[in-house]
Amino acid sequence: MNGELFAPESGAPQNLAPGACLLPGFALAQACELREVVEQVFAAAPPRRWLTPGGRRMAVAMSNCGPLGWVSDEHGYRYAALDPDSGRPWPALDARLALLAGEAAATAGFAGFVPDACLVNRYQPGTALSLHQDKDERDLGQPIVSISLGLPAVFLFGGLRRADPCLRMALHDGDVVVWGGPARLRYHGVAALKPGRHPLWGEQRINLTLRKAG
């Protein structure tokens, strides 16, 4: 399937690789609740484009909720209990969102997942996320749960080396991708978001990425 772009039928779980699963429309029924969660997070901790250790601004605007939040600056990538812009704790991780993430992880074969960090990422037309690994967490035995909201995007799911071929798949509003186990350190990214307007989310894509960071 390397290089293939596909959109699975809604509701049918799709195995992407050992340890990786796409759950089409899994979060769609909670759309209104998730919109409320995102609005509350952004009101308390507005999304911002972090500075990379190399001195460049990231394309994706990010915020966090939960006991730990992912941050980046000239000192490196890490998790922090306080928002560096305000000095206050990150907004609480909504219980409904944590439950949804746990249910998605269990459906994909990872029972008992309890996240303590949620990255809330805002993509606008033209925004892309380069290939990377999620490896700043202490326990790499825990999966990643990624919830897509709003405009559709093309998700790039590669291998354990940056140069490995990537699977290209369309992610739509409410889709959830879970990866862990042998797939936990696979490279992944998002192609540049195409212009459009979603009836609930407007001209943007929101990605909720839940993790066990501490």
Protein model, in words:
- The chain has 214 residues and is an alpha+beta fold.
- It has a single domain (5-211), classed as Alpha-ketoglutarate-dependent dioxygenase AlkB-like (Jelly Rolls, Sandwich).
- It is built from 2 helices and 14 strands; from the N terminus they run E-E-E-H-E-E-E-H-E-E-E-E-E-E-E-E.
- It has helices at 31-44, 95-107, and strands spanning 5-6, 14-17, 20-23, 61-65, 69-73, 76-80, 117-123, 129-132, 144-150, 153-157, 167-171, 176-179, 188-190, 205-211.
- The strands form 3 sheets. Strands 2-3-12-9-14-7-4 form a 7-stranded antiparallel sheet, with helices on one face.
- A hairpin with a 2-residue loop joins strand 5 and strand 6 (76-80).
- The longest helix is centred in the first third of the chain and has 14 residues, at 31-44.
- The radius of gyration is 16 Å and the shape is globular.
- The model has no long low-confidence stretch (mean pLDDT 95).
Residues in β-strands, percent: 25-35%
Total of DSSP H or I helical runs spanning 4+ residues: 2
Which percent range fits the helix content?
Answer: 10-25%
Secondary structure class reads: alpha+beta
What gyration radius follows from the Cα positions, in whole Å? 16 Å
User: The biggest beta sheet, please?
Assistant: 7 strands, antiparallel
CATH superfamily membership: Alpha-ketoglutarate-dependent dioxygenase AlkB-like
Could you please say which CATH topology applies here? Jelly Rolls
* Unreliable stretches covering 5 or more consecutive residues: none
On the 0 to 100 scale, the average pLDDT is 95
Q: How many beta-strand elements?
A: 14
Shape estimate: globular
Q: Give the strand order of the largest sheet, numbering strands 1, 2, ... along the chain.
A: 2-3-12-9-14-7-4
Q: Tell me the series of helices and strands, N- to C-terminal.
A: EEEHEEEHEEEEEEEE
Known CATH architecture: Sandwich
